[in-house]
């Protein structure tokens, strides 16, 4: 019976795909994955089907939802009934997107993937950060610019992926899998610059979220949107509002590292110098010989460091080793590194190369802008 | 050896050196170790240009990182 098939062809020829507005009723999701429902208004109703493999709809609508649906009017020859074959759908107030988000979120929650206890700390001094984003997007350029400004020692490794379009979820999952198998990075940034809701949708994909949750290195999500939180944001160890902010969270300021290094090198030099000086003062000729040996070892280490070309202010305290230092301690033997711990009347032991002076603080005058430079250890004794 | 490990070890060494009981030889050994850590850490900081790379995977699953110029 070719009649219904011919009628279908006539109907499909007469109507282009079109958008229809109405209220959803009698929604059924069949076991085979297809959706069946009615669209109605006051005067009419239209039977609809959304085939599993043809629809691009974030979540099934609920009965009573006001929607607009894009579809093709057709006849179902097997039943001789008219159907509206729906491929896309929008609900008022982004209802379907929200619903899809909530469904995914609930499934991840049930599996414990959103548990705050899963969140790992972002390493403070990464050597290398992996960035999953598109090769040509603004996100990569923004991240690179921040790293270059804050800490150029850190290497940025792009793991390219499509960040929008139908292939994006699969592409992101593949990149996450590569990062997991490679294991060469200390931290991961995954994201993209801003875009519309559909552009960002891949970051709400459940497969992507699960792959991110399995990532063996700490992750920062940077999906460039302002208000909404993406599913990846919930799963990542840290959420950053933009790719630039993610880079700032991932990378320390180099000047602070340099200062911390300089401080500990200075402390080490001072303490060693002090220890050698005490040996020299202790036991006559034997002490002097010991101390001279020690001074040679120190000098050798210092030269080795210099020849390595470490461009580091830390060299200066090493160079002044022979000038001697005093170490200031509280009575509980805590070394004083900052005037912040002192107040008038605090009792101190000041250890010189040849003995200890017992002292009391008369007054404390912190620098106006406290910095690590002003932390009072070690104090040079001129 | 990562920068973080070096820095932490250096701070640990400085703390150890504060112990009065430490004999001179042990103190010097710590100092020399500290110099080595200092050297490693300062080499890391000496890098002045951020390197931008791309991860590439060969068919046999071996990863390579290649230069990428923006």
Question: What are the SSEs and their pairings?
Answer:
The complex is a heterodimer of chains A (382) and B (70).
Chain A (H helix, E strand, L loop, with lengths): L2 H12 L3 E12 L5 E6 L4 E6 L15 E11 L4 E11 L3 H16 L17 E6 L4 H13 L4 E6 L7 H15 L4 E6 L13 H8 L5 E5 L7 H5 L2 E2 L3 H8 L3 H29 L1 H24 L7 H5 L5 E6 L16 E6 L2 E6 L18 E2 L2
Parallel strand pairs in A: 3-5, 6-7, 6-8, 8-9, 9-10
Antiparallel strand pairs in A: 1-2, 1-4, 2-3, 4-5, 11-12, 11-14, 12-13
Chain B lengths: L2 H15 L6 H23 L5 E6 L5 E5 L3
Antiparallel strand pairs in B: 1-2
Helix pairs in contact in B: 1-2
Strand order of the largest sheet of chain A: 1-2-3-5-4
Number of strands of chain B: 2
Major β-sheet annotation of chain B: 2 strands, antiparallel
Note the gap between the termini of chain B.
Answer: 29 Å
Alpha-beta classification of chain B: alpha+beta
Mean pLDDT of chain B: 83
Question: Gap between N and C termini of chain A, in Å?
Answer: 110 Å
Strand proportion of chain A, as a percent range, falls in 15-25%
CATH superfamily of the largest domain in chain A: Dehydroquinase, class II
What is the succession of H and E elements of chain A? Answer: HEEEEEHEHEHEHEHEHHHHEEEE
Oligomer: heterodimer
**What share of the residues of chain B does DSSP label as strand, in percent?**
15-25%
């Amino acid at each position: 019976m070719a009649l219904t098939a011919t009628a279908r062809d006539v109907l499909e020829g007469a109507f282009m795909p079109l958008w229809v507005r109405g209220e959803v009723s009698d929604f059924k999701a069949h076991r085979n994955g297809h959706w069946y429902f009615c669209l109605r208004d006051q005067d009419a109703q239209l039977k609809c089907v959304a085939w599993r493999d043809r629809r691009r709809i974030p979540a099934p609508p609920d009965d009573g939802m006001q929607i607009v649906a894009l579809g093709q009017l057709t006849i179902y020859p097997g039943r001789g009934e008219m159907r509206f074959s729906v491929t896309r759908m929008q609900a008022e107030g982004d209802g379907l997107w929200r619903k899809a988000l909530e469904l995914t979120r609930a499934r991840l929650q049930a599996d414990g993937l959103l548990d705050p206890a899963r969140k790992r700390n972002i390493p403070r001094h990464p050597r290398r950060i992996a960035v999953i984003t598109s090769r040509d997007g603004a996100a990569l350029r923004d991240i690179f610019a921040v790293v270059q400004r804050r800490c150029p020692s850190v290497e940025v490794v792009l793991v390219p992926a499509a960040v929008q379009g139908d292939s994006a979820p699969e592409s992101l999952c593949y990149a996450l899998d590569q990062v997991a198998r490679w294991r060469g990075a200390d931290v991961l940034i995954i994201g993209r610059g801003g875009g519309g809701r559909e552009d960002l949708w891949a970051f709400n994909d459940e497969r992507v979220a699960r792959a991110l949750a399995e990532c063996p290195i700490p992750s920062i999500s940077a999906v460039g949107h302002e208000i909404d939180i993406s599913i990846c944001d919930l799963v990542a160890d840290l959420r950053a509002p933009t790719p630039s902010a993610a880079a700032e969270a991932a990378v320390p300021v180099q000047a602070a590292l340099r200062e911390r290094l300089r401080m500990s090198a200075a402390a080490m030099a001072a303490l060693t110098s002090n220890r050698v000086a005490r040996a020299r003062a202790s036991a006559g000729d034997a002490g002097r010989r010991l101390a001279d040996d020690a001074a040679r070892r120190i000098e050798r280490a210092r030269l080795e460091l210099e020849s390595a070309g470490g461009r580091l202010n830390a060299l200066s305290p090493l160079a002044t080793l022979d000038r001697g230092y005093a170490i200031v301690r509280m009575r509980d033997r805590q070394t004083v590194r900052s005037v912040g711990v002192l107040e008038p009347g605090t009792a101190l032991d000041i250890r010189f190369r040849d003995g200890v002076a017992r002292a009391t603080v008369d007054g404390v005058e912190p620098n106006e802008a406290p910095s690590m430079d002003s932390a009072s250890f070690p104090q040079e004794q001129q | 050896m990562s920068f973080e490990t070096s820095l932490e070890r250096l701070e640990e060494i400085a703390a150890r050196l504060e112990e009065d009981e430490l004999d001179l030889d042990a103190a010097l050994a710590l100092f020399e170790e500290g110099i080595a850590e200092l050297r490693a850490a300062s080499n890391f900081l000496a890098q002045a240009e951020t390197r931008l790379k791309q991860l590439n995977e060969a068919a046999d699953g071996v990863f390579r990182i290649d230069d990428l110029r923006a």
